[in-house]
Write a structure and sequence with these properties.
By secondary structure, the chain is mostly helical. It has helices at 2-6, 9-23, 31-46, 51-59, 62-65. The longest helix is centred in the middle third of the chain and has 16 residues, at 31-46. It is elongated.
């Protein structure tokens, strides 16, 4: 079953989008953010679904470091 899911490109897109929402306040709204998210998914997929690669790609996006996103998400504690 897992092999079937991982064979689908949409799996990397889905997981990358979940990570994006976890670290960003909202879904990507600009074209640049959509390209960054697509790059995260692509790097995740080509790495053989290595989560470390996905997180490194996500944490290197401009959106992650954007001032507007800092402190915008409250962490449940």
């Amino acid at each position: 079953m897992l092999d079937i899911l991982l064979a689908q490109p949409a799996t990397a897109d889905f997981i990358a989008a979940k990570l994006w929402r976890e670290f960003h306040i909202a879904a990507p709204v600009t074209e640049a953010e959509r390209r960054e998210l697509a790059n995260v998914a692509s790097r995740f997929r080509t790495s053989g679904y290595d989560i470390q690669v996905a997180l490194r790609a996500l944490l290197s996006t401009q959106a992650f470091w954007a001032t507007a996103n800092r402190g915008a998400r409250e962490v449940a504690g």
